Amino acid sequence: MSLKFHLDDLRVFCLAARKASFAATAAELGTSQAFVSKRIAILEKALGVTLFHRAARRVTVTDDGERVYASAQQIFEGVEHMADTVAGGRIDPRGALRVTTSFRLGRKHIAPTLSLLAQRYPELDITLDVVDRRVDLISENIDLDVRVGDVEEPHLVAHRIAESSRILCAAPAYLERRGVPAVPADLSRHECLVLRDRFQAFGVWRVEGPNGTEKVKVTGRLSCNNSEIVRGWAIDGHGILLTSEWDVHDDIAAGRLVRFMPAYTQHADIWAATTVRLSHSAKVRVCVQFLQEQLASGPFALQR
To answer: Which region among 67-71, 123-127, 198-202, 290-294 has the lowest average model confidence (pLDDT)?
Structure first.
């Protein structure tokens, strides 16, 4: 039996399988739902199988579709490996590069740095998704996740991008009203602005100080999963903030926030996580190196 189909149709199918929606697939591709449906129908005819159970608003992959999806991943891995092998020492990487990161880090540092990367390497097609949640690099087809804090997943490869720490700070008005904490235990008696972080335990702050690691349960009337909102609340005088030093550098310099208990910090280096399969990819390697250089000394470097 001779199978004839386009790799592009296979890519459309894989995206639709992950999205479980032809409409969402069309939106991401910038095309119509009718186009997506047509390309998948052509692929089904070429393969002689039904790939999806179709419903009004959602599609689910059939058993045959699951097998095709698994084989497609192997095909695309082989194509990418071949491209990297043939490229050898090529200076300019090319192809699609999908990066994820958190909102604040993405807006202030990663997005403008990727803009410079795109200017340097015009053959790279870069997609940046900013999400304050844990991502699954494999199922979501992500090449690189840039995060604050250690990479704990054993199946991922971690690249350190920059050293950083979280520090304690608050608005001058809050500290005048409630007093300045002297030791970590004091924080439990204060209004603390709790960030529902992608990788941090909610409501528990761990800091390193003269006595090693100390853990304190903190509470407050305000909490949010967005660091920029929490920072704004701190500036408004609502409570104490534990956040990355680069994030509040300008606020402290301008007097909007005051750092206290400087002997107590929390390790918060910036890492880039990727899969084992992509760890030696030319596009990932170049992006990691570029981020390391730019966040250390470029125009959008982390200020400490």
So the answer is: 198-202
Cα R_g (the chain), whole angstroms: 23
pLDDT tens for each residue of 158-216: 999 999 999 999 999 999 999 999 999 999 999 999 887 655 556 889 999 999 999 99
Q: Please give the model's pTM, rounded to 2 decimal places.
A: 0.70
Q: What is the pLDDT of residue 1?
A: 44
* Cβ within 8 Å of residue 292, ≥6 positions away: 159, 160, 161, 162
Which domain, by its residues, includes 190?
A: 165-267
Q: Contact at 8 Å (CB) between 49 and 57?
A: no
CA 39 to CA 46: how far, in whole Å?
Answer: 11
In a domain, 126, yes or no: yes
Number of structural domains, the chain? Answer: 3
What does the alpha-carbon distance between residue 54 and residue 37 come to, in Å, rounded to a whole number?
Answer: 10
In degrees and rounded to multiples of 5, residue 204 shows phi and psi of -125, 120
Would you say residue 261 has pLDDT above 90? yes
| AA letter at 111 | A
Distance, in Å, from the CA atom of 69 to the CA atom of 107, rounded to the nearest integer, reads: 34
CATH at 76: 1.10.10.10
- Report d(CA 83, CA 282) in Å as an integer: 9
Nearest to 166 by CA among 262, 252, 272: 262
CA angle (93 as vertex; 88, 94 as ends), nearest 5:
120
Between the alpha carbon of residue 147 and those of residues 70, 93, 143, 165, 272, the distances in Å are 28, 23, 13, 13, 6
What tens digit of pLDDT does each residue of 241-252 get?
Answer: 999 999 999 999
For the record, the structure tokens of 170 come out as 């608050």
The closest of 45, 87, 2, 135 to 13, measured between CA atoms, is 45
